[in-house]
Amino acid sequence: MSSHDIPEENLPVEQDATHGAAVTVADENHPFADPGLPPHEHRIQDIDERAAKRSERTVALLFTLSMLATVGFIASYVTIEPNKSIYVFPIGHISAMNFALGLTLGVALFAIGAAAVHWARTLMSDVEVADERHPIEAPPEVKAKVLDDFQQGAKESQLGRRKLIRNTMFGALALFPLSGVVLLRDLGPLPGTKLRHTMWSKGKLLVNMNTNQPLRPSDVAVGSLTFAKPEGLEEHDEDFQTQIAKAALMIVRLQPENIKDKQELEWSHEGIVAYSKICTHVGCPISLYEQQTHHALCPCHQSTFDLSDGARVIFGPAGHALPQLRIGVNADGYLEALGDFAEPVGPAFWERG
Ligand code: FES
């Protein structure tokens, strides 16, 4: 755009100082004259179409580089082993995946920024314009002018004419967000129904967590509190914490005549009842038992459960009773589970799911 294209009202003209416009001649009231805008100098791209084409190719190249870097980011994320390390001077040994992700993401962002800057500096209009300040409430004719200016700016950006730039820019901007989308994979696999089930299944022996021995009914005395885990779950197992957090059991022996809940009695063996040790408030392990009252107490927020009455909550913030595990005795005389818990263990958010 040449200076001939500038709207007349934007050119530095001598105006009446008494109306608050630009002062181009110093006087008593305005000792400093407004020098106005310097003369516009054309860039090589303004007068030489071949130079403009070169700039266009440079911008397109940078946008293309950004696209390639984004593809490289995704490829790095998918193909590089997370625990692989490489030596990078002068940093030393670092994670190969982190290095590749950082590098490609940096190049993708830098290339988009560099392309935008180069485009603005070499091809978009560089004619400086001055505009008067106006009241915030713009009159309709000013709004119309803004719209005109916007359309003029869009025309001057040559977005419609330079299709190569436009297409590669849209490609780079459309592809770049994919970098964030692939990172969603790091949220881990969907849990499916895993959180609704535990290791307990029909025939699994109840193993004493202290002695690591399968429990017989005679091992559980009236008034005692025994903690148990499923047979086959060992402390050195990789997923021990995950599994025990759901499967930990609390076993007590009651006099059968003291059991008030009918289902509890059916699911017990000779007065031995097995309940989840995981508090239904926010999941603390329950560890206190009062044999006189048959109350189990969670130490975190004092939720209290009546183990003689279906482990219903009699005090505290827990939302529902502890899940009971149905148990029996196998042919060898060991206590065994007769299935999984009938409901998910732990906090009550399951009820809202
Ligand atoms: S976690 Fe048991 S009462 Fe809060």
TrEMBL record:
Statement: the UniProt record of this protein carries the keyword Membrane: yes
Source organism, top-level taxon: Bacteria
Keyword DNA repair: no
One Gene Ontology CC term in the entry: plasma membrane
CDD domains named among the record's database cross-references: Rieske (cd03467)
One matching Pfam family: Rieske
Primary site of residence: membrane
Membrane topology listed for this record: Multi-pass membrane protein
PANTHER family: CYTOCHROME B-C1 COMPLEX SUBUNIT RIESKE, MITOCHONDRIAL
Description of how the protein assembles with itself and partners: The cytochrome bc1 complex is composed of a cytochrome b (QcrB), the Rieske iron-sulfur protein (QcrA) and a diheme cytochrome c (QcrC) subunit.
Protein name: Cytochrome bc1 complex Rieske iron-sulfur subunit
Source species of the chain: Streptomyces nodosus
